[in-house]
Design a protein that fits this description.
Layout lengths: L1 E5 L11 H13 L5 E7 L4 H5 L2 E11 L2 E10 L7 E6 L14 H17 L7 E5 L6 H7 L11 E5 L28 E2 L2 E2 L1 H8 L2 E4 L2 H7 L7 H6 L4 E3 L26 H16 L7 E8 L8 H9 L5 E8 L1 H13 L4 E5 L3 H10 L2 E4 L9 H7 L3 E5 L2 H6 L11 E3 L4 H16 L1 H12 L5 H18 L1
Parallel strand pairs: 1-2, 1-6, 2-5, 6-7, 7-10, 10-11, 12-13, 12-15, 13-14, 15-16, 16-17
Antiparallel strand pairs: 3-4, 4-5, 8-9
Helix pairs in contact: 1-16, 4-5, 8-11, 9-10, 9-14
The structure holds adenosine-5'-diphosphate and alpha-D-glucopyranose (GLC).
The site of alpha-D-glucopyranose has 14 residues, from helix 1.
């Protein structure tokens, strides 16, 4: 089986969030004697592309409406990953020092068209084309409808929805950017009066999956306008829980950590990492450390942190450390907390991969009060590093964390996203921490919970095979 993943992000090349982690891991675990899994992504101007050497394997021109752009397909001179990776270099549009911006319609359309133009030149076309999120959402439509891609009509494609909040909407005025198709089919592109790449992909893909079973069910009720579409298409939709890359996220070998540890050395290992964090961020090591890592956006519930943290910190019983960036007003309020609660609160506003690993290792609790969480990887990283997750019961969080009050429970769960829910959950964490023997037992236990990709990678293979069985 030969399959290609097409994605805007892939770790360690370009990462904004969990999409990169998934696309950087799943192909590794799919690659086996019977499966060849490859990735195609844009060529951005970033550290990875600056420090590595690439060779050109294909050169051509693509057309976007009336404009032509030169493009190249590049690959690494020396293979660095456990799968083959190809880069679409459209210098005028994609080679920027960011992944997402305001001009994404043209940028990601160019990416999708260049990708398909190149795939057309392959002697043997892939058995499956696997698209991720709305940035690649027009591919299933183009494979099915664009005249120039007729060769792909029988090539099955799969769409994975990592986050249905973002759909890539653009106006019908730009429909001419899409390679020519029978205009009677324009309805396939439309949802609610605009061109909606995610909706078009849900309509045209042969199979659709979300990144947790729980999220698939929730989307039928709340999907940022796509509820009816997902209900209508439910027979081809399924939920497959993400895994985590145990080769990257292993506290025994993680080269970002100050001290590596296993479930046997968890106490001393976590302590050394916590000390480093507390020294660096001027926090009291004797208090339990609650942390948050993530995008400061409404979906993550982070707008409630300033009020919740202010109330909790007044009691002087906990330390809090936050890593993230996003909404400016939230960033501003969090910065103010630093001054008010010196010694018990600190944050790093920005993106720092190395620091995130040390936080997973050194924190005692990880907060995730998400309003929407299609899967969430942070809670699984926290578990792997022996850090208790505190999560809202939603999407993938609900599928992966069991509250300590339930049988075999190991985390702290809350039902709603309010300041008082967050405060109550932190207080429950505090009580748990005070019972050091129970707290330590849990830490060892959660490190062994298996969220590696092995099982989920097999689920994807089953998904591809289910297409064959039906054709
Ligand atoms: P999402 O993709 O919705 O942001 P996930 O939980 O799936 O959420 O994945 C987030 C990923 O991004 C994790 O690998 C997390 O560690 C990482 N991450 C998020 N924010 C930051 C940050 N500011 N610095 C470093 N890593 C971050
Ligand atoms: C999205 C979701 C997140 C998920 C990630 C990887 O960014 O917001 O919940 O874990 O994709 O699938």
């Amino acid at each position: 089986m030969n399959l290609v993943h097409i994605s805007a992000e892939c770790y360690p090349i370009a990462k904004v969030g969990g999409l990169a982690d998934v696309v950087g891991a799943l192909p590794k675990y799919q690659n086996s004697a019977a499966t060849t899994s490859q990735v195609i992504m844009p060529f951005y101007d970033n550290t990875f592309t600056r420090v590595n050497a690439f060779k050109i394997i294909y050169e051509s021109q693509l057309t976007l409406g009336d404009t032509s752009y030169d493009f190249k397909i590049l690959t690494l001179k020396k293979p660095l990953l456990d799968f083959d990776i190809f880069f679409v270099d459209v210098p005028d549009l994609l080679f920027k020092d960011y992944v997402y911006s305001m001009d994404d319609t043209e940028r990601f359309l160019a990416f999708q068209i260049a990708t398909l133009d190149w795939l057309l030149s392959w002697e043997t076309i892939p058995d499956y084309i696997h698209c991720h999120d709305h940035h690649t959402g027009l591919i299933p439509f183009m494979l099915q409808e664009s005249f120039k891609y007729e060769r792909f009509r029988e090539t099955p494609n799969v769409l994975t929805i990592h986050n249905a909040q973002y759909q890539g909407w653009f106006s019908h005025d730009k429909v001419n950017l899409i390679p020519e198709f029978d205009f009677d089919k324009v309805g396939l592109l439309d949802w609610g009066g605009s061109i909606n790449p995610l909706a078009a992909a849900i309509k045209c893909a042969w199979r659709v999956n979300t990144v947790s079973p729980g999220y698939m069910e929730e989307l039928k009720i709340s999907a940022n306008g796509l509820e009816h579409l997902l209900s209508n298409e439910s027979t081809k939709c399924t939920g497959i829980l993400n895994g985590i890359d145990w080769k990257v996220w292993d506290p025994e070998t993680d080269h970002f950590l100050i001290s590596n540890y296993s479930d046997k050395t968890i106490i001393s290992g976590k302590k050394t990492n916590k000390k480093h964090l507390c020294d660096t961020f001027n926090l009291d090591i004797n208090k339990p450390l609650f942390a948050f890592i993530g995008r400061l956006v409404g979906e993550k519930g982070s707008d409630l942190f300033p009020d919740a943290f202010r109330a909790i910190l007044q009691k002087e019983e906990v330390s809090i450390l936050l890593l993230g960036s996003g909404q400016p007003q939230v960033e501003h309020q969090l910065e103010l907390l630093k001054g008010d609660f010196e010694g018990s609160y600190n944050n790093f506003i920005g993106y720092d991969e190395a620091l995130s690993h040390v936080i997973y290792a050194g924190a005692d609790f990880l907060l995730m009060p998400s309003r929407v969480e299609p899967c969430g990887l942070n809670q699984m990283y926290a578990l792997r590093y022996g850090t208790i997750p505190i999560v809202r019961r939603i999407g993938g969080l609900k599928d992966t964390v069991i509250d300590i009050s339930e049988t075999n429970g190991f985390g702290i769960c809350h039902d709603d996203v309010t300041v008082s829910d967050i405060i109550h959950a932190i207080n429950r964490g505090l009580s748990l921490y005070k019972d050091q023997s129970a707290y330590r037992k849990l830490g060892k236990y959660i490190m062994k919970i298996d969220h590696s990709w092995d099982a989920s990678a097999k689920e994807y293979i089953k998904l591809y095979n289910s297409i064959k069985q039906n054709t």
